[in-house]
Amino acid sequence: METSTPDLITAVIGFRQWRLCGEELWSFRATERWQRGVHSAHCLTDAHDAPAHGCSCGIHPWYSPAPRGASALTPDLVAGAVALWGQIELHAHGMRAQHAMVVARALPCSRGAKRRWILAAADALEVPAVPARRLKAAALAHGDVIPRSMRPPDTTPNKRAAPGEPAPARLYAVADGYRERQARRRDR
Ligand SMILES: [Zn+2]
Predict the structure, then answer these.
(1) Spacing, Cα 18 to ligand 1 middle (Å)
(2) Taking the model in full, what pTM does it have?
(3) How far is the CA of 169 from the centre of ligand 1 (A)?
(4) pLDDT bucket at 2, cuts 50 / 70 / 90
(5) 150: which of 94, 104, 174, 175 lies 20 to 30 Å off by Cα?
(6) How far is the CA of 94 from the centre of ligand 1 (A)?
């Protein structure tokens, strides 16, 4: 779907988990490294722009933060929030987006090496690392979450399915001004 007028004018906020490799941040399946600045989706199976309808490409965030225990008990999983824009397809459990930028990281309660690595990774990304309970509030300074009324209905019995290919999907365009607004915010 091509649209020239965006449906949403502020960045959309989503939540993800990454894998820490030392101080580096990698995607959940460790196929892509996330670095400072904009992360854009590419389709690995076709030549189309990501995300494409009917494909599984795109950056996959959830609508709300993963349960706190999900990453706290693992040595290498880290939770965080992203600002999303460009083309975004909404699914029952999450989204598939074209562009993303990490806006906040969640810190574990423990004070071990993992905490130090998350702080170092957050430093490299120039994003704040906050206690998990404040993740959503920190993220909301950068955009809005998708309201429940805009999300397609859940048609699958498995409530914990990862965002991917579940049935009815809607494609929205989100204003591409996020980077510019960030730059203006810094100049102020
Ligand atoms: Zn694709």
Answers:
(1) 21
(2) 0.81
(3) 15
(4) very low
(5) 104
(6) 17
CB 62 within 8 A of CB 163: yes
Name 60's Cβ contacts closer than 8 Å, sequence gap at least 6. Answer: 16, 94, 95, 96, 97, 162, 163, 164
pLDDT at position 149: 84
Query: How far apart are alpha carbons 112 and 64 in whole angstroms?
Result: 26
Give the per-residue SS3 of the chain. Answer: CCCCCCCECCCEEEEEEEEEECCEEECCCCCCEECCCCEECCCCCCCCCCCCCCCCCCECCECCCCCCHHHHCCCCEEEEEEEEEEEEEECCCEEEEEEEEEEEEEECCCCCHHHHHHHHHHHHHCCCEEEHHHHHHHHCCCCECCCHHHCCCCCCCCCCCCCCCCCCCEEEEECCCHHHHHHHHHHC
pLDDT tens, residue by residue, 87-111 = 999 988 899 999 999 999 998 877 7
- pLDDT reading at 161 higher than 70: no
C-alpha 47 – ligand 1 centre gap (Å): 7
Mean pLDDT value across residues 112-136? 90
